[in-house]
Write the structure tokens for this entry.
Amino acid sequence: MKDSIIRVIKFIGLGFLEPLIRLINKEEPKKNIKEVFRKIVAPIASVFIFVGLWQLGSTALYNIEADYKIEATLKSQGEAEAQKVKECMESGDPSCQPNTLPSPAQVYASYLTLLKDHKTIAADKKAFKEKTFELNKKRVKQGKSIITYTGRPSFVDQIKTSLKTVFAGFLLALFIAVPIGIVIGLSSTLRGSINWVIQILKPVSPVVWLLLVFMIVKTLTKNSEGDSAFIISFISVGLCSMWATLVNTAMGVASVNTDYINVAKILRLRPMQKIFKVILPASLPLIFTGLRITLSVAWMVLIAIELLAQSPGLGSFVWEEFQNGAMDSNSKIIVAMFIIGMIGFALDRIMLFIQNLISFEKETI
Amino acid sequence: MTLITNNPKIERFPSNEVMLDLIDLKKVYPTPKGDYVVLENLNLQIKKEEFITIIGHSGCGKTTMLSMMAGLNEISGGKISVLGTSIKGPGPDRGVIFQAPSLMPWLTTMENVMLGVKKVYPHASKKQKEDICKYYLHKVGMESSFHKRASDISQGEQQRVGIARAFAIKPKVLLLDEPFGMLDSLTRGQLQDVLIDVWNKEKITAVMITHDVDEAIFLADRVVMMTSGPRAKIGDVLPIEFERPRTRKAILEHDDYYKYRKHLIDFLEH
């Protein structure tokens, strides 16, 4: 029972809970208390220290900004106005708070606002769907296009859009980089001859990729209706992020243990058999390392690309909030930052999970 | 009984008895400082169903010679022929057991053996192929782990599977490159028994490199001694005339055993 629980939590990446479970089972209490401290208490403490430092920092910045604001009012409008501003600030009225790094509490409040906002919009959407359901049925019968919800997307919708884009981009990278990687890994002539392309294109910034894709897609989609912003952003994400997979695949394929190759030679396996039975499985760990890097790069550049391409998603959410300049914009941006970070972390864990599932080498980094 | 054949190059056998024939074999590796000649004027005939062990100092070219026989290494001069036809590249008529077990770690023991069996018996039914795999895995004592991944078994067990894989493709010649070099002496003894047991039944020609003088004597019909490189060649050949099947105990108690041993050690130390 206990051992199977431990196996399961280790498998899903929650291995740090192991000493706690062992402790509950009264197993080696001395050692496990130490382990619990090392693996659970210490990390939690570090979270508190982080939040504390953040609180201190934001208070300090708040004070600088507040002092400056009062000083400025004093100079331009006199003492009475300055006193008013000061009182207004102290009363906590959001309309006269200085605009700076938000405190943890403000960020948490914004998080709740965003959730509430999402619930309202979701309810709105549902109501709209029910209302137009009958009408849409009729319109379909008449051959007209259906009426869709065109209201503002909620924060959660933005996350979904971003995930969709990054997934499409990742798949694109996978389908381009892995086959090419295998081919150039197999042939040293090919590797030598197109190495320059890879070396030159690899360091190109996401912004430039976006512009390049924009040039091409804009022309290609001239005559067709469709979501060209989505197409542009996912293709750019794919092109930016595929290099890690390409290079890793090529390296993995080129560096397969010579013993395995010799076995394949002695058995006179046909080229296809050799690739699928020997070379690919042997290079799978490196290919997966590449794919993990690709996914994290894809997620990282996605935000920048959405921001520039004006395609919906977390990136445009951040940008709009920044442009918006409302009272809680800054804290919403920080909320987005944490969400982006956590999703990135989760994506990496998922990749690691899949890798452990299908690969013969176990990796736990 | 003559222990020493004075000039091994002269010893020729009738051609219908010869399985492997190495004629004036030469191997040259080009280096920045000029060509490095590893082997030169190497002549050796290996009879059908014979078990040959090769000993010599490290770096003398034993492994080079073996991989040339396997077709994995190019021949710079001379030729190697199997049953009178010179070899061109590797093939399933010459099975190889490497020093590292070199099983595919992502496959099960069964699938590892199957990889070769599929190639050699393309028309057999799935059941027949599985039976062949099982037969050989059974022979090497791996009957309880057909479906274990190769990465999950010990190195000794992996080498057992390596032996099964090599025999299962029914090679004419089995080439072994220090197959037990990485194993502890207890496992090594067990695997020598497994190897000789399967070899006795299959009656194929075997050529094995070893560093271990006792192993060389215990397994071989003839022990081939190579001179130190560069330009290594066959230095001496020692026929081992113990009856088969042999047991380790009987051989250790045999009077000739120490003569053989002394002969080999004298060669290696001079």
In short: Chain A has a mean pLDDT of 85. The interface with chain B takes residues 257, 259-260, 262-263, 265-269, 277-278, 281-282, 284, 359-361 of chain A (CB under 8 Å).
